[in-house]
Amino acid sequence: MQIPSQSSIADIYGNASSIKLVTVAPELPGSTDLIADLARSKNIRVSLGHSAATYAAGHSALESGATCLTHVFNAMEPLHHRSPGLAGLMALSPSSSSSSVPGGANGTDNERKSTNPEPPYYSLIADGIHLHPSTLTLAFRSNPERCILITDSIELAGLPDGLHPGNAQIPHRQRKIGNRVTIEGTDTLIGSCCGID
After folding, report:
1. Which residue in 142, 28, 29 sits closest to 87, CA to CA?
2. Which of 4, 75, 152, 173 lies 20 to 30 Å from 22, alpha-carbon distance?
């Protein structure tokens, strides 16, 4: 992970000409400028994820040019009835009018005036492991025209159950049981082995 305010686009992505989509945590310092530059100057789609961002910070990121949420409910703050976080943006309604966004971009209690950006596209890992079926249904129904169903299948797909060595991304030994893969000795989910079919 890179801190946007401490790196240039070239530092983070090198030659960005072949990059089409990136995921950014909008609460990181400098992310708003990075999102605007990637979306408007480089024509790169920006998704929000791997994040502890507030709803307001996510809303600001959408205003800056982000258009998607990465695997909603996974690697982000949970949906809470008073603090919906990024997941709450799934239900954003398009509007040309201005509205108040609670919590300001930095998560304070101050409200700020805002125009409503387009509702984001959002991906859901529909493998029966990452999301409870009722959570998946709730999220899908919030805006089915913007929902993208994905898999989080990892390199252990097709291999037998048991312990497998780590890799550069996950250095810990991995325990595969059926389609579920966790870090050995924990319940920490690494991914699944479900195909797109």
Report:
1. 142
2. 173
Give the global pTM.
Answer: 0.85
Catalytic residue among 11, 109, 127, 152: 152
Torsion angle (degrees, nearest 10) of CA 96, 20, 64, 148: 50
Largest CA distance in the chain: 55
Cβ atoms 101, 112 nearer than 8 A? yes
- Say which amino acid occupies 131: L
What CA–CA distance (Å, rounded) separates 121 from 103? 23
Contact 62, 120 (CB under 8 A): yes
Instruction: Supply the pLDDT for residue 15.
Output: 81
How many C-beta neighbours within 10 Å does residue 91 have?
12
* Bridge partners, 189 (sequence order): 182
Inform me whether the pLDDT recorded for 97 exceeds 80.
no
